[in-house]
Amino acid sequence: MSKIKKAVIPAAGLGTRFLPATKAMPKEMIPIIDTPMIQVIVEEAVRSGIETIVLVTARHKESIENHFDYSYEVEKTLEEKGKKELAEISKSVARFANIISVRQKNPMGLGHAVLMAEPVVGNEPFAVLLGDDLIISEKKQATKQLMDLFDEMGKSCVAVMEVPEKEISKYGIIAGTKSKEGFWTVTDVVEKPKVSQAPSRMAIPGRYVLIPEIFDHLKKVKPGTSGEIQLTDGLVLLAQNQGLLAHTFEGIRYDTGDRLGYIDATLAFALKRPDLREDTILLMKKYLEKN
Ligand code: G1P
Questions:
Q1: How far is the CA of 172 from the centre of ligand 1 (A)?
Q2: pLDDT (tens digit, 9 = 90+) per residue, 56-85?
Q3: Pair 158, 174: CB distance under 8 Å
Q4: Domain spans of the chain?
Q5: 132, 235, 249, 255: which to mutate for ligand 1, most atoms within 8 A of CB?
Q6: Taking all residues of the chain, what is their mean pLDDT, rounded to a whole number?
Q7: Which atom of ligand 1 is least distant from the CA of 13?
Q8: Which residues contact ligand 1 via a Cβ below 6 A?
Q9: 132 CA closest ligand 1 atom index
């Protein structure tokens, strides 16, 4: 059994990169086909063995909490009409995990959002999953891969992936020493560097397993130029004081905060679904022939 039982999922952002969809609806509720992105993330955590999900939300995000609760009217009406299967789809989401939500009252950055989860996480190691990063892994969920590394090594760890130079400025980039293929001991993390200042091309795609000392570090971090407390600055202190590992995970990651990344993820998820795969291929062929 893993020592990691809780996962923090920050979901407080305004989602301005996806306007107008996010004007009156949380970006986390935008679906990939028929499943809200936040559900895809929660499912990764639950399949990894996480029991308690700490959602860090904000004003106007109540629909996320409702999504993970029962919807009495919908379920009762479906049952009365004999549509048990559909009712079950709705009910099963409410049974996924123990969901606890906390509020981030001011948009003060990802580090600050993670800090809001401290009263619920307490003195335990925990996972963090970022909602814009969807990962499809063939064998083991990306979060589970990090949990296994933590259980073996006892140190905080982050997932990393190699990115082309033009994408370096979108990510936290690590500096480190390679211990074996796919594993690094992290010495530094730089948030969204210019190519000329990047210590490597290894980027963090929004999956972390952290020890509770991160909270003390985040309390010391000064807001950056944008007034935000960066998780990356807390990771640097973790690397310097308690140690931080990086691991190239198995899986493909989709940046659903980006319009093209969202289309990419939608197609990839459709092709993975037996009920949609064949017809999706036909659709893709149709568009290829037309263009
Ligand atoms: C955040 C983190 C960054 C990380 C990225 C992954 O940035 O600050 O270190 O690499 O998520 O998606 P954001 O994309 O929220 O600007």
A1: 6
A2: 999 999 999 999 999 999 999 999 999 999
A3: yes
A4: 6-257
A5: 132
A6: 95
A7: 15
A8: 110, 130, 132-133, 171-172, 191, 203-206, 231-232
A9: 12
Backbone angles phi, psi at 251, to 5 degrees: 145, 170
Domain 6-257 in CATH: superfamily? Spore Coat Polysaccharide Biosynthesis Protein SpsA; Chain A (3.90.550.10)
Q: What mean pLDDT comes out for the span 15-34?
A: 94
CA 133 – ligand 1 centroid, Å: 9
pLDDT in tens, 118-132: 999 999 999 999 999
* CB contact set of 230 (below 8 Å; sequence gap of 6+): 109, 110, 111, 191, 221, 224
Among 204, 221, 256, name the best residue to mutate to test ligand 1's pocket (greatest count of ligand atoms within 8 A of Cβ).
Answer: 204
Prediction pTM value:
0.95
Closest CA to 60 of 37, 30, 26: 26
